[in-house]
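seq as requested:
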Amino acid sequence: MVRNVHRSPVMADVARVAGVSHQTVSRVLNDHPNVRQETRERVLAAIEGLGYRRNSTARALVTRQTNTLGVVAFDTTLYGPASTLYSIERAAREAGYFVSIVSLRELTRDDLSEALDHLARQQVDGLVVIVPQSAVAVALAEMPQPVPVVTVEGDADVGLPVVNVDQRKGGVLVTEHLLRLGHRTVWHVSGPPDWLESQGRIEGWRETLTAAGAPIPDLLYGDWSPRSGYRCGQLLAGVPDLTAVFVANDQMALGVMRALDEARIRVPDDVSVVGFDDIPESEFFTPPLTTVSQDFSEVGRKAIELLLDALADEESPCGRSAQPPDGLLAGAGGVALTEAAPPARIVVQPHLVVRRSSGPPRTT
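struct tokens:
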């Protein structure tokens, strides 16, 4: 008995229907310029009519490209890292790339190395690594990088391309806002001290207080969770003359506000509270939370743009692989003409979203 087995069309079927050679179909698929427009249209019509889908595995063997980008993320239970990861994945898909993700609960050097090895075995074309901690950024820069790498929220000083939000500017925006309202000083509940985002927000807060000649209170540290914010809020409730608090993320701000409420301290009548991140729930806090908004979509788009630029440079005969050692371009007689450009850095600006949790201090 003969069975009628349905199979997917292959390149030979396209060639037969279009009346061209296998090589001509390949040239059309790879957008080769040496194909007449009439022939190209005939091949494309055959592809559409047959429903042909090119074999990505076979293509990878020929071009050494998988059309897949690797992403390493950390603690995606947090709003910021989760939003960053989503924006990167969406931007990659819009650019026509598949995405392979490794999400780590702990970002140690060994975990990072294992994640990079895993993605290398998948033969990804390039990598985006979300680097929230300074020590990890340094470790990444010291590791072998067989494919182009772009970091997000990383440290520009480690020598890798980076896209980040101006965290320092966010700290400035919050502190200036509260000082303009008439507060004598601003307390700060920071995130973990080893996080680059925490460091930037602290820097902006401290610089703004210093420039205004305002007292600089002792820092309180949380771990990004509402519970840690609650514990910091209990300490703040006992601070004499407390009128304003800048909290390094909205989840901790929620905990701070709960602790103040239990201590019968009203927000914003007695104490103004400002958060960071503008999570979707922040406008439904009681009262709605003043906070700093980060454009995670722009971060994702810029990270993928940087990576695709790096991939294009890799493929160019004048790209990175063609440069002499030490990043120098040699002229006649081996004289250095110019140095390689420093790694690209793109900074996305945050903006302040003013709601009802901040106001002028109460007059006595």
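The first strand starts at residue 68 and ends at 74.
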